[in-house]
Every structure is written in C-alpha cells, then in structure tokens.
C-alpha cells in the first residue's frame, strides 16, 4: 500500500508523483500534533493526500481586524474552489466574496497594518452588518458542505480565535490546511513564512495584501501550488552551505527561479520612510549584469 492509501484515493497517473512527494516530507510534516488534530488541523501529508483526491472543495478564509482592538472585525474574505467541474483545468476557477463589516466602518488600520479595505482586486465588495455577515458565511458553509470541504488559511489558528471572539464557531469536524505548514514542509530550511514571502518565492504576482479577500484568494492560489506534487518534486533545489553562526555544514532549500532574499529586502517604494504601513510590492530594479541574471534564472528551470 502506498502512503496514506494513495492507490485508492487519487487518480492513477498522479500516484507516483504524490507518493514521492509524501515520502520526501520532513518528519514533522507527517503527522499533526494532538492539539492541532483536535482543532481539525491537517498535517502536510494529510492535506496533500486529501487535496489531490480532487474530491474536496477548498474554502480559503481570511479576516482583517482592527489593529488596536482585535475583537473588532473589519473584513472577511472567502475564496472557493470546487474541483468537481474542473478536475483537469489548467487554471482554477475561483469564486470570491469580500464582506466589509458595517460595524467596523468607523475603524481604520494605518499604524501597523495598511488600510486596503477598499482595494479589492477580485471584484465587488459587500457591506453587511454582523448578523448578515454570519448568515452569508453559514450559506457558504452550507453550499460547499463542510464535511466535503477543506478550509484553507494562512496561520489560520489565529483567524479561528478572532471568529470565536466574534461569536462564530466552526464545526468540530472541519478540516484545515494551513499554507504555513505546506510551505515549511516544502522548504524546511526557510526562516520566513509570511504570505507575501511565500508568494514572492512561488512567483505569484500580488498586490494590496491585508485586504481580506485578496489574502484569501492569494492563500488559495498558494495552497494549490504547494499541494501540486509535480511542482513540489521539481521546484526546490537542495544545496549545502556553511552556517555563519555555527560553522557547520547545513542543507538549505532554494526555490528555482525565485528572487533571492536580499533582493526582496530591497523592495520599494522608499525603505527610508518612517511609515510602518508603507506598501512594499515593487522590487527595486536590477542595475548590474542584466543578461547574466536572466541566464542564471533560465538555467534553474526544471
């Protein structure tokens, strides 16, 4: 029997790639901790196996709250992927909902988190009060059928706490796939796991993070990439380096064709700005060795 009963739950032509993926996972990614299991959190191995059955809907959820009072929710983002009608699609059809909470309109983030409430790149937003928002979420839960759905989030345990403070409880049987876990299982040596960092490394263009639906959409796209066996099996290069602190040889993982960390730190617009919420989406132009840079990136293609 292949790992996680793959011979019975995934398409036959995908079994070798998925088996290779799961066998290569670090030890900590094979099983979720007891407390996480109780909360519905899937291990990376279980998330990969279940997502690749193409039988589970994916519901990505993100919430934005007021930076000074966490109990005040400002926005909810919902992004839905249903594989039933797009099993072999080359690009996913994703449906998005952006709820702007009426009670939160009097609050605006700006000190620690940018206020991107009106910068919804996925479509039209909805203004709703708390009762209406909870009704909308319940209707979405009913539509996707949470027993046949995997909830996707980025550091979702904190979002669940916010929803609980807000008065919304998730059913105990809900399954949760966390993109932070999927990322660390692919690149165990990575020291960063923020959403923007993962998007940069995976080559997913983005803008206006900290808008709830933008975040839920990007999280879902990242999840689909991170759960793709062929991508996982071919995207990462393992290299040996000498650790600057210990002087010991260590294995590091590098994503092919992705920007280097030092280049990401140079993103514009103005690093000297004292504003903590300065938008940081654009990379500083490369000024030296342009031809050599392109050549080096092309050589990393699998």
TrEMBL record:
Question: What's the short name of a Pfam family annotated to this entry?
Answer: DEDDh_C
Q: Cite the InterPro entries for this sequence.
A: Gfd2/YDR514C-like, Gfd2/YDR514C-like_C, RNaseH-like_sf, RNaseH_sf
What GO cellular component term, any one, is given? Answer: nucleus
Give all residue intervals belonging to the Gfd2/YDR514C-like C-terminal domain. Answer: 58-225
Recall the GO molecular function terms of this protein's record. Answer: nucleic acid binding
**Domain of life of the source:** Eukaryota
Recorded protein name is Gfd2/YDR514C-like C-terminal domain-containing protein
